[in-house]
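Exercise 7. Predict the joint structure of the components listed below.
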Amino acid sequence: MQPLPELQTRFARALRDPGASLPPIRANGLGAARRLQVYRHNHETALLSALRAVYPVTERLVGEEFFAVAASGYVRQDPSRSGNIQEYGGAFPSFLGSYAPAASLPYLGDVAALEWRRLQTAVAAPHTPMDLKALAAVPAEDLPELHFHHQPAARAFKSAFPVLSIWEFCRQADPEGELDLEPGGQCVLFSRPALDVQMRLVTPGEYAFLQRLCRGGTFEAACRDALALEQGFDVEEQFAALVREEILTSFHL
Amino acid sequence: MGELLERRPLVSWLEVHSENYFAPGGRAVAELDEVRRHYPLSLHGVGLSLGSMDPLDEEHLRKLSQAVARFEPMLVSEHLCWTSVGGSHLHDLLPLPYTEEALDHVAARIAMVQERLGRRMLIENVSSYLEFEHSAMPEWEFLREVATRSGCGILLDVNNIYVSAVNHGFDAHAYVDEIPAREVGEIHLAGHTRRELQDGTILIDSHDQPVADAVWALYDYALARLGPKPTLIEWDSSLPALDALLAEAAKAQTHLERRDAAAA
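Solution:
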């Protein structure tokens, strides 16, 4: 008789490692190893399907077979920590970033990171837009000291690769032409005005401006960061756009 | 979901996996809000890991409570199994040994969850592909005792009984005979896959095809024995067109009504 804690530990070990000793399974027609194999297969399939659902463009980039091998390597290294399988796979982008067999696609991890952020944006809490009257009523001298909150779905991602262009190219059913990697890095802003995720490119100045605001910095500090990177940064226009797109949703002194 | 909302077919209620609607926002939960405006709903969980020795996952339980508050389901159910150990989740419905130790443990956990949710749950028998050497009672006895000790109801999955009966060589009818009719709050039906291996046959609970004839026959037997029960077709892999799903649900309704006519 094997107590429950030991039994579960041993069962899980046998699922992950075909060489591990089996828990006490009744051999009845089919052998114990064959019976356990059904569960091993279910377990592997569940996690692979979860990763495929989150990372469809990454999978297109490398092909189904390569993706499955990479995914099974990842699954061994990073077990699921939640009973909700939809939360699985957040560390797959960084795994791919240092996955030696994918070294010829240096942007692979960033494309996966874009897909993960896109999903987080899709399922984030809803927001209410900025109270524009209240914003208009802020005295001009208080403006530099304002702090802002952003919509829960909004996030920004900076890549050394043209990651949004790659994602858009690979997402086409039948990609035409050639992908140009020349433009270099891109900063992507994710948001969700209603139910659909939107992604757009932002300049390094906008990115710095937004990052500072989202991390609790004042309006003045955000302007300073943006102008340091981009001399021509149009504060008024960029700020208005972030309010209009409901990226910034409330403020306080 | 979109097609369902557009056509709004005449079905009496719908069931979803609870965890798919744990997110605080986005399209899935917005659509389910809309579905809920037109249909009664059942929340069916797969990740609470009731039979695990890990502590109950408070975060999971909190999200489940929130989903219950948001969608006001008529039924909340989970599985008689375990899915995690040492904090890692295996995402498969793993069998328990049918021992007094496991019975005490899982019944106490179900009672705790029911207290937290402030409502009774239904607990479902799972398909299994192996039995443990030290199991000391048949599954039906374990399931019945879990219901008695925790106060939960039973979600009787007739396909799972059939699948496990074939995989382990027990009598599916004897299983049904031992289930207390008044504790059964729902019945599940689903398609399974038959795999022929060198050393024998195994049935896999795959939810990817129509309900097998033998399972329909066992369903009729269960209805005769248990009385009419709300019945759900589980089909969540290789989904067919909505019409094929509706036809399968209508078939279950016909079996239910035939049983009613026979009982009248």
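Discussion. The CA atoms of residues 100 and 106 of chain A lie 10 Å apart.
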